[in-house]
Design goal:
This protein has five helices and 19 strands. The chain is mainly beta and about 325 residues long.
């Protein structure tokens, strides 16, 4: 609430339930909270992180509880009640944080007429999570980012890169996951993090997508396919914490393209899977791999689609897809 911890004394309507210390108490994780300072961790001995799915709403505007006061206090980057940054979980095993739970995003509010609960997006994601055949975790690994030439040699320059993703299965008119800057739901990294930050800050989890044979549109084609619209917005550059307007054009893209993934499951449990992937901007450069998950050490195989904008400003990196059979 207002990016601060909910006060313990705010007991009316049990609002203090959302206080981090209170949550740590009734979740029996005070030791974890003291060590990591967060309550969004799931110990592996309680429930494996692979068995959890998080559906995150990103539309605060349609959450009408308390005449709209709730969304006003929670603020942007929320579903009206819960901050997007606090709406998903990570695993905890042997005292170390492991990986994020499968997470999808939809432009829906916490509840109400346009809420998550009765939404098409939540239903389609949950059905695929429970009964799907393929899981794909979508990551972006950023290798480099360059500033405009006019900022060469300028000190105290900072920028916030907003990374967008929209993923939709073939033949459907809705998105399984949707993260956009205009809806306050992109993944974000600063220029400092990309240039000189810790390596893990350059590896950005975007979302997870589940595909199901039951939802195949063309019954003559047993492959499962979906498209991912990937974008990075041109950031608002700052010099010594002040906005630099000289080269700013609102809404411009640093990079935008659509990636396609088509997966044909194996005919037998230990057989090879056929996986094809390509960028829309390079339709003739289709890469096809025969993958055998039975031989993978952890049952997962990674595919990488490199991207780059060599201009100034620019960005380069890899869209990394972690694929595994799902049941």
């Amino acid at each position: 609430m207002l990016d601060v911890n909910v006060p313990k004394w705010l007991t009316k309507g049990e609002i203090n339930t959302f206080n981090r210390d209170e949550m740590a108490g009734f979740l029996d994780m005070r030791d974890i909270t003291e060590k990591f300072g967060r309550v969004d961790l799931m110990p592996d001995e309680v429930l494996g992180i692979d068995r959890i799915f998080c559906m995150v709403g990103t539309n605060r505007c349609d959450y009408e509880t308390a005449e709209g006061m709730a969304r006003a206090f929670v603020g942007h980057g929320s579903d009206g009640l819960v901050k997007i940054a606090n709406a998903s979980l990570c695993g905890l095993k042997n005292g170390a944080i492991t990986e994020p739970a499968a997470t999808a995003f939809a432009y829906r509010s916490h509840s109400g007429y346009f809420g998550i609960v009765n939404s098409e997006e939540a239903y389609q994601n949950l059905v695929r999570f429970l009964f799907g055949d393929v899981r794909v975790d979508i990551w972006m690994d950023i290798d480099s980012a360059t500033l405009p030439r006019d900022l060469d040699g300028v000190d105290k320059v900072e920028a916030l890169y907003q990374i967008e993703l929209k993923a939709a299965p073939r033949g459907k008119r809705w998105f399984l996951t949707r993260r956009t800057a205009i809806e306050d739901s992109p993944a974000c990294r600063t220029h400092s993090e990309i240039v000189s930050g810790a390596p893990e800050r350059k590896q950005i989890y975007l979302s997870s997508v589940f595909l199901s044979k039951r939802a195949i549109v063309d019954k003559k084609n047993n492959s499962l396919a979906y498209a991912m619209v990937v974008g990075v917005k041109v950031p608002d550059y700052e010099i010594d914490h002040r906005f630099w307007p000289n080269g700013h054009y609102e809404g411009a893209d640093l990079f935008r393209d659509t990636a396609f993934l088509e997966v044909t499951p194996a005919d037998s449990p230990n057989g090879d899977w056929k996986v094809a992937h390509w960028w829309a901007s390079r339709p003739s450069a289709v890469t096809t791999d025969m993958l055998n998950f039975a031989n993978a050490s952890d049952g997962k195989i990674q595919l990488k689609l490199a991207f780059a904008n060599p201009n100034r400003p620019g960005i380069a990196g890899t869209l990394r897809l972690v694929i595994r059979p799902w049941e």
